[in-house]
């Protein structure tokens, strides 16, 4: 079973997108090779659901963060080597040798570039393999290290007797005979081994990159637990794309599986909820998370309703689009899936009375699915008061502090239900009513 996150959730959390501003993918996309980028894409699109596999990948990333190694391969060299190695030589040694000499002759008489392409590909491959050997020596792993088995496989390939010439030929001018000989070895005799080498280099690209990002941004590695333990805990959880983000604790489990969140606009509710959803997604990838510490039970997926828009083509109003999102979440949850569900400002597309009734009913109904985790926010604080008899709900808010007439937002999660009602004061601070009534000259706007 694969980890589920639909298109709306991916967009809500801004997870994917190479060129999207502040996308989570762009934070980690510092890889140097095209193969490394393909591997990174695959990891982002296919989070894991096996705690052992997740923890194993996390251990490898942590290992490379601690090693603090620089990926030594030049992107251009890797591209040339990959193109060269991907072209398989047909036939036998004699045919391959004849083909190389024929291309050499064509180069001399007709300025044909086929031999030059083989030569540059061979030269790039020799350089790449030499750098790989040096990097593996720097790792100098021992049995039990997270990367030991993968490193040993690559070392065994490089130790093949058919590659004894590598250390001798680096940087040397090669004769046509040597080109033919080495070309046949790399692209015919050791074709499958060279494919494994390329994959190993792409993995090293991702491992060193993710480890470096974790060190630079002070991310930590979450511990994956079996689904049966049903917990989600984090210390100093924050948004990974914000440089000065405030960290907050999270502790949700079977006895307290619903976080009911209140607070004013701009107090940080949406950012907090996105931070949680992003951390859950990255943790299931085995990637580092923006927290001091995190442990989580494996989930079947994460589902959010944060930036739901109307659909003019389908004729859906904003409210109806919200209702459909809740229905989709209900289908997932009622089918027995262990989900993390995030609802930001439920039913804001309808009137206050309907929003109150609907939020109360939906929260009450979802809270009974103790195998799932829910985070639900609302402006309608009276809903929280009506839910006080639900023992499995946690009530938290993000406060607004008034300094005179100016609001300040500390972004610190606080137990309870907010009593903040500063909306009208903010409207007055912006001088909106004075603009409308034309009394600008008599009012001082506080900013």
What's the mean pLDDT score?
87
Q: What's the CATH H-level superfamily name of the largest domain?
A: P-loop containing nucleotide triphosphate hydrolases
**Unreliable segments of 5+ consecutive residues:** 442-447
Largest sheet: 6 strands, mixed
Description:
Residues 256-437 form the DNA mismatch repair proteins mutS family domain. This is DNA mismatch repair protein. It holds the Pfam family MutS_III. Keywords: ATP-binding, DNA-binding, Nucleotide-binding. With 447 residues, the protein is of the alpha/beta class. The protein has two domains: 75-215; 219-419, Rossmann fold, CATH 3.40.50.300. It has 17 helices and 14 strands. The chain has helices spanning 7-12, 24-28, 34-45, 51-67, 75-86, 93-110, 114-139, 148-158, 166-169, 176-189, 191-217, 269-285, 318-334, 352-366, 381-386, 423-429, 432-437; strands at residues 220-221, 223-225, 231-237, 248-253, 258-263, 288-289, 293-297, 301-305, 339-343, 373-378, 393-398, 401-403, 406-408, 414-415. The strands form four sheets. It has a six-stranded mixed sheet with strand order 8-9-10-5-11-14, with helices on both faces. The chain has a four-stranded mixed sheet with strand order 2-7-3-4. Helix 14 links the parallel strand 9 and strand 10. The chain is elongated. Residues 442-447 have low confidence and may be disordered.
């Amino acid at each position: 079973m694969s980890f589920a996150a639909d298109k709306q959730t991916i967009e809500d959390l801004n997870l994917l997108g190479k060129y999207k501003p502040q996308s989570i993918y762009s934070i980690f996309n510092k890889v140097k090779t095209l193969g490394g980028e393909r591997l990174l894409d695959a990891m982002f699109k296919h989070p894991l659901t096996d705690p052992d596999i997740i923890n194993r990948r996390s251990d490898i990333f942590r290992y490379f963060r601690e090693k603090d190694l620089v990926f030594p391969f030049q992107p251009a060299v890797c591209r040339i080597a990959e193109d060269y190695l991907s072209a398989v030589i047909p036939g036998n040694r004699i045919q391959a040798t004849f083909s190389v000499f024929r291309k050499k002759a064509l180069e001399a008489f007709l300025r044909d570039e086929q031999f030059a392409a083989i030569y540059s590909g061979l030269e790039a491959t020799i350089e790449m393999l030499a750098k790989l050997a040096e990097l593996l020596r720097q790792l100098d792993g021992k049995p039990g290290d997270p990367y030991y088995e993968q490193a040993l496989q690559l070392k065994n390939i490089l130790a093949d007797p058919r590659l004894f010439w590598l250390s001798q030929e680096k940087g040397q001018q090669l004769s046509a005979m040597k080109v033919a000989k080495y070309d046949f070895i790399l692209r015919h005799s050791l074709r499958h081994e060279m494919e494994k080498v390329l994959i190993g280099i792409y993995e090293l690209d991702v491992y060193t990159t993710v480890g470096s990002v974790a060190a630079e941004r002070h991310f930590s590695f979450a511990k994956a637990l079996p689904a049966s333990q049903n917990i989600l805990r984090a210390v100093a959880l924050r948004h990974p794309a914000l440089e000065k983000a405030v960290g907050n604790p999270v502790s949700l489990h079977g006895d307290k599986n619903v976080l009911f969140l209140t607070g004013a606009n701009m107090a940080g509710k949406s950012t907090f909820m996105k931070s949680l959803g992003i951390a859950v997604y990255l943790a299931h990838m085995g990637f580092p998370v923006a927290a001091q510490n995190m442990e989580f039970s494996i989930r079947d997926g994460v589902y959010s309703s944060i930036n739901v828009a109307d659909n003019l083509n389908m004729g859906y109003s904003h409210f109806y689009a919200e209702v459909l999102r809740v229905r989709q979440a209900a289908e997932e949850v009622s089918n027995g899936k262990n989900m993390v569900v995030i609802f930001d400002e439920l039913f804001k597309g309808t009137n206050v009375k309907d929003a109150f009734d609907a939020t109360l009913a939906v929260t009450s109904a979802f809270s009974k699915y103790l195998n799932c985790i829910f985070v639900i926010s609302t402006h309608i604080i009276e809903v929280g008061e009506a839910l006080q008899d639900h023992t499995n709900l946690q009530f938290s808010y993000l406060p607004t502090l008034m300094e005179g007439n100016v609001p300040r937002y500390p972004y610190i999660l606080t137990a309870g239900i907010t009593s903040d009602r500063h909306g009208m004061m903010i409207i007055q601070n912006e001088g909106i009513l004075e603009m409308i009534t034309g009394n600008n000259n008599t009012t001082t706007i506080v900013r």
